[in-house]
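Extended Data, panel c. Modelled sequence:
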Amino acid sequence: MKLAAVDIGSNAIRLQITNVTFYEGKTNFKKLEYLRFPLRLGHDVFLNRKISDRNRRKFTKLMKAFKILIDLYEVDDYMVCATSAMRESENGKEIVEEIKQDIGLKIQIIDGNREADLINMALWSYIDQKSYLHIDVGGGSTELNIYVHKKKVASKSFKIGSVRVLDDLDSPKVWKSMYKFIETHIDDKMKITCIGTGGNINKIFELTKPGKKRYLEIDKIREIQTYLESFTYDERVNKLNLNQDRADVIVPASKIYLGVMTAAKSQRMIVPDVGLKDGVMNLLFERNKKGPVS
């Protein structure tokens, strides 16, 4: 069984194609293809409320390329999810309908709660009876989910993201609202461990050269933030070998993670290296494990 997940984010767009096999009572997942294309739709939308003609043309070409790969791999089922930038764009629904009619690719524009639910599907193996705060920082939004005894007790999406912060489009009112949410649902008696998802925290984690461990202490994240701030954008690209669309947003993203961790009085973050595409893949598997959807 072959499955494909597409994540249309505010800073980049990702495609993953996975082959699922069943052998001797075990389910095996093999990644066949992974592509990340740096198309920053969020810059258009958060500044001008719509996707520009130039990026609309690039987006259409990219969706054609993804559809060709999905067809070439003879995928049994797929799901394409668009998040913050597309759902806030005045011409987002029009573009989605155009892609459906011209290319035959169905795109779902999902809200923040649905986005968080899908990501959470990929997190269950990291959540036990303790208290956790899941922080997912994207280009346009940050999703917070609080778990106690393996039960989600609170969840909310905030219009704070790495691209918004980079472009100085984050509202102090929204930051205050996010901190108020944390204060309301996390008391001083709760010992909170954070779980961080998103491309920027994965890169921060990688820069720490952590070995086999899958967590970071808050002081280490602060250390990496200071280290990154000591370089110019060009130096991050050429000396640290960061992608161009990562080199400018990684510091704003680190400020969001640290802000949330500090507000929650959390000292440690688990970094499982999963995201929306992984949650989508889990959903596709669940609905196809008894046979591909016709």
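The two ends are 13 Å apart (CA to CA). This feature is highlighted in the accompanying rendering.
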